[in-house]
Amino acid sequence: xxxxxxxxxxxxxxxxxxxxxxxxxxxxxxxxxxxxxxxxxxxxxxxxxxxxxxxxxxxxxxxxxxxxxxxxxxxxxxxxxxxxxxxxxxxxxxxxxxxxxxxxxxxxxxxxxxxxxxxxxxxxxxxxxxxxxxxxxxxxxxxxxxxxxxxxxxxxxxxxxxxxxxxxxxxxxxxxxxxxxxxxxxxxxxxxxxxxxxxxxxxxxxxxxxxxxxxxxxxxxxxxxxxxxxxxxxxxxxxxxxxxxxxxxxxxxxxxxxxxxxxx
Length: 264
Ligand code: BTN
Known about the structure:
This protein has 264 residues and is of the alpha+beta class. 27% of the residues lie in helices and 30% in strands. The protein has helices at residues 9-13, 34-41, 89-108, 169-173, 179-199, 201-211; strands at 25-28, 51-54, 75-83, 112-115, 119-122, 125-137, 140-150, 218-223, 226-236, 240-245, 250-253, 258-260. Strand 5 (119-122) and strand 6 (125-137) form a beta hairpin. It binds biotin.
Protein backbone atom coordinates (compact mmCIF):
# COMPACT_ATOMS: atom_id res chain seq x y z
CA UNK A 1 0.00 0.00 0.00
CA UNK A 2 1.50 3.39 -0.93
CA UNK A 3 2.64 5.51 2.01
CA UNK A 4 0.50 8.42 0.75
CA UNK A 5 -2.73 6.54 1.47
CA UNK A 6 -2.24 6.59 5.27
CA UNK A 7 -4.74 8.97 6.81
CA UNK A 8 -3.13 12.17 8.02
CA UNK A 9 -5.07 15.24 9.27
CA UNK A 10 -2.75 17.77 7.60
CA UNK A 11 -2.91 15.97 4.27
CA UNK A 12 -6.69 15.72 4.47
CA UNK A 13 -7.02 19.41 5.32
CA UNK A 14 -4.55 20.52 2.62
CA UNK A 15 -6.60 21.99 -0.27
CA UNK A 16 -9.85 21.35 1.60
CA UNK A 17 -12.05 24.32 0.76
CA UNK A 18 -14.93 23.64 3.15
CA UNK A 19 -16.00 26.19 5.75
CA UNK A 20 -17.80 23.94 8.21
CA UNK A 21 -17.25 20.23 7.63
CA UNK A 22 -13.63 19.41 8.45
CA UNK A 23 -13.07 22.66 10.41
CA UNK A 24 -11.08 20.28 12.59
CA UNK A 25 -9.86 16.87 11.45
CA UNK A 26 -8.57 14.20 13.81
CA UNK A 27 -7.11 10.85 12.83
CA UNK A 28 -6.91 7.97 15.29
CA UNK A 29 -4.88 4.90 14.58
CA UNK A 30 -7.32 2.74 16.51
CA UNK A 31 -10.52 3.40 18.42
CA UNK A 32 -13.64 1.52 19.48
CA UNK A 33 -16.01 3.42 17.19
CA UNK A 34 -15.51 6.83 15.60
CA UNK A 35 -19.19 7.56 16.39
CA UNK A 36 -18.54 7.04 20.10
CA UNK A 37 -15.41 9.18 19.96
CA UNK A 38 -17.17 11.95 18.03
CA UNK A 39 -20.02 11.86 20.56
CA UNK A 40 -17.48 12.61 23.31
CA UNK A 41 -16.13 15.60 21.35
CA UNK A 42 -19.70 16.77 20.66
CA UNK A 43 -20.11 17.58 24.37
CA UNK A 44 -18.45 20.85 23.43
CA UNK A 45 -20.41 23.22 21.21
CA UNK A 46 -17.12 24.13 19.51
CA UNK A 47 -17.02 20.67 17.95
CA UNK A 48 -19.38 21.65 15.11
CA UNK A 49 -17.85 20.42 11.84
CA UNK A 50 -15.26 18.21 13.56
CA UNK A 51 -14.45 15.00 11.70
CA UNK A 52 -12.87 12.00 13.40
CA UNK A 53 -11.22 9.36 11.20
CA UNK A 54 -9.79 6.04 12.31
CA UNK A 55 -7.60 3.50 10.56
CA UNK A 56 -9.16 0.76 12.65
CA UNK A 57 -12.23 0.28 14.86
CA UNK A 58 -12.50 -2.42 17.48
CA UNK A 59 -16.27 -2.01 17.95
CA UNK A 60 -17.55 -0.38 14.76
CA UNK A 61 -21.33 -0.16 14.69
CA UNK A 62 -23.83 -0.43 11.86
CA UNK A 63 -27.55 0.32 11.60
CA UNK A 64 -29.98 -1.83 13.56
CA UNK A 65 -27.42 -2.87 16.17
CA UNK A 66 -25.18 -4.70 13.66
CA UNK A 67 -21.38 -4.76 13.82
CA UNK A 68 -19.37 -2.92 11.16
CA UNK A 69 -16.11 -4.74 10.51
CA UNK A 70 -13.16 -3.55 8.49
CA UNK A 71 -9.50 -4.56 8.46
CA UNK A 72 -6.89 -1.95 9.35
CA UNK A 73 -6.50 0.82 6.71
CA UNK A 74 -8.88 -0.94 4.34
CA UNK A 75 -11.67 1.62 4.57
CA UNK A 76 -12.48 5.23 5.08
CA UNK A 77 -14.06 5.24 8.55
CA UNK A 78 -15.17 8.56 9.96
CA UNK A 79 -17.73 10.47 11.99
CA UNK A 80 -18.80 14.06 11.45
CA UNK A 81 -20.21 16.23 14.26
CA UNK A 82 -23.04 18.66 13.50
CA UNK A 83 -24.19 20.87 16.36
CA UNK A 84 -27.56 22.62 16.30
CA UNK A 85 -28.46 21.54 12.80
CA UNK A 86 -31.94 22.66 11.83
CA UNK A 87 -32.33 19.63 9.55
CA UNK A 88 -34.66 16.82 10.61
CA UNK A 89 -32.83 13.53 11.09
CA UNK A 90 -34.58 11.74 8.22
CA UNK A 91 -33.78 14.49 5.75
CA UNK A 92 -30.18 14.59 6.97
CA UNK A 93 -29.99 10.83 6.49
CA UNK A 94 -31.08 11.10 2.83
CA UNK A 95 -28.76 14.09 2.35
CA UNK A 96 -25.76 12.14 3.60
CA UNK A 97 -26.63 9.24 1.30
CA UNK A 98 -26.62 11.58 -1.70
CA UNK A 99 -23.32 13.13 -0.58
CA UNK A 100 -21.63 9.75 -0.09
CA UNK A 101 -22.95 8.31 -3.36
CA UNK A 102 -21.65 11.31 -5.29
CA UNK A 103 -18.28 11.03 -3.53
CA UNK A 104 -17.81 7.38 -4.48
CA UNK A 105 -18.95 7.52 -8.10
CA UNK A 106 -15.83 9.20 -9.44
CA UNK A 107 -13.02 6.99 -8.03
CA UNK A 108 -15.12 3.89 -8.67
CA UNK A 109 -15.66 4.97 -12.29
CA UNK A 110 -19.26 3.89 -12.18
CA UNK A 111 -22.42 5.33 -10.69
CA UNK A 112 -22.93 4.71 -7.00
CA UNK A 113 -26.61 4.26 -6.19
CA UNK A 114 -28.62 4.41 -2.97
CA UNK A 115 -30.54 1.56 -1.39
CA UNK A 116 -33.04 3.03 1.04
CA UNK A 117 -32.50 4.51 3.48
CA UNK A 118 -28.81 5.07 3.04
CA UNK A 119 -26.81 2.04 1.88
CA UNK A 120 -24.49 2.95 -0.98
CA UNK A 121 -24.35 0.39 -3.77
CA UNK A 122 -21.79 -0.11 -6.57
CA UNK A 123 -22.63 -2.62 -9.29
CA UNK A 124 -25.11 -4.32 -6.96
CA UNK A 125 -22.76 -4.62 -3.95
CA UNK A 126 -22.82 -2.57 -0.75
CA UNK A 127 -19.75 -0.32 -0.72
CA UNK A 128 -20.65 2.08 2.08
CA UNK A 129 -23.00 2.58 5.01
CA UNK A 130 -24.09 5.52 7.10
CA UNK A 131 -25.03 5.48 10.77
CA UNK A 132 -26.68 8.74 11.79
CA UNK A 133 -27.09 9.26 15.51
CA UNK A 134 -28.56 12.13 17.48
CA UNK A 135 -27.42 13.04 21.01
CA UNK A 136 -28.62 15.62 23.49
CA UNK A 137 -26.13 17.62 25.54
CA UNK A 138 -26.40 20.59 27.90
CA UNK A 139 -25.73 22.89 24.93
CA UNK A 140 -28.47 21.26 22.81
CA UNK A 141 -28.65 18.56 20.15
CA UNK A 142 -25.82 17.18 18.05
CA UNK A 143 -25.83 14.81 15.10
CA UNK A 144 -23.05 12.28 14.67
CA UNK A 145 -22.81 11.14 11.06
CA UNK A 146 -20.83 7.89 10.92
CA UNK A 147 -19.64 6.81 7.49
CA UNK A 148 -17.83 3.65 6.47
CA UNK A 149 -16.61 3.31 2.87
CA UNK A 150 -15.01 0.06 1.72
CA UNK A 151 -11.88 1.00 -0.23
CA UNK A 152 -9.10 -1.62 -0.43
CA UNK A 153 -10.90 -4.86 0.42
CA UNK A 154 -10.57 -7.80 -1.92
CA UNK A 155 -13.46 -10.27 -1.97
CA UNK A 156 -11.92 -12.54 0.64
CA UNK A 157 -11.51 -9.66 3.10
CA UNK A 158 -15.27 -9.81 3.70
CA UNK A 159 -16.80 -12.30 6.12
CA UNK A 160 -18.32 -15.29 4.25
CA UNK A 161 -21.88 -14.10 4.91
CA UNK A 162 -21.11 -10.73 3.29
CA UNK A 163 -19.06 -11.90 0.29
CA UNK A 164 -22.08 -12.02 -2.02
CA UNK A 165 -23.45 -8.62 -1.03
CA UNK A 166 -20.42 -6.43 -0.19
CA UNK A 167 -17.89 -4.77 -2.44
CA UNK A 168 -15.13 -2.14 -2.34
CA UNK A 169 -14.09 0.74 -4.56
CA UNK A 170 -10.86 -1.08 -5.55
CA UNK A 171 -12.81 -4.19 -6.61
CA UNK A 172 -15.17 -2.20 -8.80
CA UNK A 173 -12.63 0.28 -10.19
CA UNK A 174 -9.87 -2.29 -10.70
CA UNK A 175 -7.35 0.23 -9.34
CA UNK A 176 -6.11 1.50 -5.98
CA UNK A 177 -8.28 4.34 -4.68
CA UNK A 178 -6.51 7.06 -2.73
CA UNK A 179 -8.27 7.44 0.63
CA UNK A 180 -6.85 10.92 1.21
CA UNK A 181 -8.48 12.41 -1.85
CA UNK A 182 -11.61 10.35 -1.15
CA UNK A 183 -11.72 11.92 2.35
CA UNK A 184 -11.46 15.43 0.90
CA UNK A 185 -14.14 14.71 -1.69
CA UNK A 186 -16.39 13.29 1.03
CA UNK A 187 -16.12 16.32 3.32
CA UNK A 188 -16.65 18.69 0.38
CA UNK A 189 -19.68 16.75 -0.82
CA UNK A 190 -21.19 16.61 2.68
CA UNK A 191 -20.85 20.37 3.13
CA UNK A 192 -22.34 21.00 -0.32
CA UNK A 193 -25.38 18.77 0.16
CA UNK A 194 -26.04 19.79 3.79
CA UNK A 195 -26.14 23.42 2.64
CA UNK A 196 -28.52 22.55 -0.17
CA UNK A 197 -30.76 20.55 2.19
CA UNK A 198 -31.09 23.57 4.50
CA UNK A 199 -32.07 25.83 1.61
CA UNK A 200 -34.05 23.52 -0.67
CA UNK A 201 -34.89 20.07 0.69
CA UNK A 202 -36.93 19.21 -2.43
CA UNK A 203 -33.76 19.39 -4.53
CA UNK A 204 -32.02 16.84 -2.29
CA UNK A 205 -35.01 14.51 -2.37
CA UNK A 206 -35.13 14.74 -6.16
CA UNK A 207 -31.42 13.85 -6.36
CA UNK A 208 -31.98 10.99 -3.89
CA UNK A 209 -34.78 9.68 -6.13
CA UNK A 210 -32.50 9.75 -9.20
CA UNK A 211 -29.84 7.77 -7.33
CA UNK A 212 -32.27 5.29 -5.78
CA UNK A 213 -32.03 1.69 -6.98
CA UNK A 214 -35.48 0.92 -5.64
CA UNK A 215 -37.72 3.58 -7.11
CA UNK A 216 -39.97 1.93 -9.68
CA UNK A 217 -38.77 -1.54 -8.58
CA UNK A 218 -40.42 -4.32 -6.65
CA UNK A 219 -39.35 -4.28 -3.03
CA UNK A 220 -39.88 -6.75 -0.21
CA UNK A 221 -39.34 -5.41 3.27
CA UNK A 222 -39.82 -6.37 6.87
CA UNK A 223 -41.75 -3.92 9.00
CA UNK A 224 -42.07 -4.73 12.71
CA UNK A 225 -41.49 -8.40 11.90
CA UNK A 226 -44.06 -8.58 9.07
CA UNK A 227 -43.20 -8.94 5.37
CA UNK A 228 -44.61 -6.56 2.74
CA UNK A 229 -44.07 -6.63 -1.04
CA UNK A 230 -44.95 -4.00 -3.59
CA UNK A 231 -43.76 -1.49 -6.14
CA UNK A 232 -41.71 1.37 -4.75
CA UNK A 233 -43.45 4.54 -5.88
CA UNK A 234 -41.71 7.16 -3.79
CA UNK A 235 -39.80 8.28 -0.76
CA UNK A 236 -40.74 10.80 1.87
CA UNK A 237 -37.98 12.16 4.12
CA UNK A 238 -40.15 11.79 7.23
CA UNK A 239 -42.52 8.95 6.46
CA UNK A 240 -40.06 6.76 4.58
CA UNK A 241 -40.36 4.42 1.63
CA UNK A 242 -43.72 4.47 -0.17
CA UNK A 243 -44.95 1.15 -1.61
CA UNK A 244 -47.94 0.31 -3.79
CA UNK A 245 -48.59 -3.00 -2.05
CA UNK A 246 -49.35 -6.24 -3.91
CA UNK A 247 -52.14 -6.85 -1.39
CA UNK A 248 -53.63 -3.46 -2.30
CA UNK A 249 -53.23 0.06 -0.99
CA UNK A 250 -50.35 2.45 -0.61
CA UNK A 251 -48.30 2.42 2.56
CA UNK A 252 -45.27 4.24 3.96
CA UNK A 253 -42.51 2.49 5.88
CA UNK A 254 -40.28 4.52 8.16
CA UNK A 255 -36.56 3.79 8.43
CA UNK A 256 -36.60 3.16 12.18
CA UNK A 257 -38.86 0.08 11.94
CA UNK A 258 -38.04 -1.26 8.48
CA UNK A 259 -35.37 -3.47 6.96
CA UNK A 260 -35.16 -4.32 3.29
CA UNK A 261 -35.37 -8.10 2.75
CA UNK A 262 -32.01 -9.60 1.73
CA UNK A 263 -33.23 -10.86 -1.65
CA UNK A 264 -33.97 -7.31 -2.93
C1 BTN B 1 -24.65 0.52 8.12
O1 BTN B 1 -25.08 -0.37 8.87
O2 BTN B 1 -24.78 0.44 6.89
C2 BTN B 1 -23.96 1.72 8.68
C3 BTN B 1 -22.48 1.48 8.88
C4 BTN B 1 -21.74 2.68 9.44
C5 BTN B 1 -20.31 2.35 9.76
C6 BTN B 1 -19.51 3.55 10.15
S1 BTN B 1 -17.80 3.23 10.21
C7 BTN B 1 -17.51 4.78 10.94
C8 BTN B 1 -18.62 5.01 11.94
N1 BTN B 1 -18.29 4.42 13.22
C9 BTN B 1 -19.09 3.40 13.51
O3 BTN B 1 -19.01 2.71 14.56
N2 BTN B 1 -19.99 3.21 12.55
C10 BTN B 1 -19.84 4.19 11.49
